[in-house]
Amino acid sequence: MGVPKKKTTRRKKGNRRSHHHATAHSFGKCENCGELKLPHRVCPSCGYYKKVQVIKTAEI
User: Fold this and answer.
1) Rounded to the nearest 5 degrees, what angle is found at the Cα of 40, between the Cα atoms of 27 and 17?
2) Half-sphere exposure (CA, 13 Å, Cβ side) for 52?
3) Mean pLDDT of all residues in the chain?
4) CB atoms within 10 A of CB 45
5) How buried is 37 (Cβ within 10 angstroms: 0-12 exposed, 13-18 middle, 19+ buried)?
6) I need a labelling partner for 59 at 20 to 30 A (CA). Which of 8, 33, 39, 42 fits?
7) Is residue 32 within 8 Å of residue 21, measured between CB atoms?
8) Confidence of residue 60 (pLDDT cuts 50, 70, 90)
9) Within 10 Å of residue 42's Cβ, how many Cβ atoms?
10) Where do the H-state alpha helices sit in the chain?
11) Is the overall model pTM greater than 0.70, yes or no?
């Protein structure tokens, strides 16, 4: 049976959970307009992805 024989110490528990932290998103510049965007996503400001217009954006 999977019953622990001894109590898991704070150090062991902390070492096991050392990689469970949140990471920040990485941003890249859009090749078309230069705005920051998430990688492998369509640019929300201009609608381009890999130098091809994918979606039309409302021009103000």
Assistant:
1) 65
2) 3
3) 91
4) 14
5) buried
6) 39
7) no
8) low
9) 18
10) 10-16
11) no
Q: How far does the chain reach from its first CA to its final CA, in angstroms?
A: 66
Query: Residue 12: phi, psi to the nearest 5?
Result: -60, -45
Q: Is 32 left (phi over 0), alpha (psi -120 to 50) or beta?
A: alpha
pLDDT tens per residue across span 1-59: 789 899 999 999 999 999 999 999 999 999 999 999 999 999 999 999 998 999 888 76
Tell me how far apart the alpha carbons of residues 43 and 51 are, in angstroms, rounded to a whole number: 10
Residue 30's Cβ-count burial label (10 Å; 0-12, 13-18, 19+) is: buried
H-helix or E-strand containing 29? strand 28-29
pLDDT tens digits, one per residue of 32-41: 999 999 999 9
